[in-house]
Amino acid sequence: xxxxxxxxxxxxxxxxxxAPRGTLALHVDVAEALHRVGYGPESDGPLQPADVAGRRPLxxxxxxxxxxLVRRYQHGGLLRSLTGGRYLDWERxxxxxCLSDTLLRCGxxxxxVVAARARAVGPLWELEVMTPRIEGxxxxxxxxxxxxxxxxxxxxxxxxxxxxxxxxxxxxLHDLLHADLQPNNILVAEEDLEPDACGPPTLHLLxxxxxxxxxxxxxxxxxxxxxxxxxxxxxxxxxxxxLSHADLARFxxxxxxxxxxxxxxxxxVKTRHALGKSIHGLGHLLERLLASxxxxxxxxxxxxxxxxxxxxxxxxxxxxx
Length: 321
What we know:
Blueprint: E1 14-19, E2 22-27, H1 28-37, E3 48-49, E4 58-63, E5 66-72, H2 79-83, H3 92-105, E6 115-121, E7 124-132, E8 137-139, H4 140-148, H5 154-173, E9 176-177, E10 186-189, E11 203-205, E12 212-213, H6 218-239, H7 245-255, H8 262-290, H9 293-299, H10 308-311
Antiparallel strand pairs: 1-2, 2-6, 3-4, 4-5, 5-7, 6-7, 8-10, 9-12, 10-11
Helix pairs in contact: 5-7, 6-8
């Protein structure tokens, strides 16, 4: 069969399996092991819920002593209450697979997509990608919670924020527009949070769904920076301040090491944030009103003591992705 779109242009090392109700692209390194455990175009095999907090459903599979995460696509915002995890566009996970391979070739760390699947559910599709689990890491959203509680020393604090700015700089330098750029979609190695950590911090970029490669114009850069700032500001309004003006300067030191445009970028971000604050606030209110009680508890908006973001503000062990 001749496959259309991104399935026809998979990177080297991948091949496609097809069944009446599903299409699976997988890497040769995991193909045999996946077949043995029964994971295929239509079957899940021994998938188990992963012990990783997250908005999107995450499942886990052990293969030859290594753990893999399966992320099933789920709509965000208002669409989540209407359509759940069903999609019209069955090619999305295969585009994410190709993008992850491209970014790794560019030197931007991201978990390699080793399998991507579209499974038919009536006239729509259930979509998912599988990646190796990055052990010994937490997402940057959790790290900000530790900053808020004063659990991270000043030296790693500076290094992490500058490294985050540098990661966003390299994304834009390679013409990547991430569809959901926020701290929860950045992994940081826990060893880099230690006071005696040295060397460049290891950051991984997560969740490439709907992200695109293309010429990144100035207004698009600033839109992404404003979106990132809006997310942090919303969390600070809910749980308390965690970043100082010096911290923001550290981020921009990584993003603009030549110090040529950061002031103009920061002014634009603040202006965009002020203009869009009320509109986005209304959207989040509608989303919360339409969300199920289960979603509210998971996000910490119905009972903040047990929500995901609030969990980052409590001491104790956390899972890595």
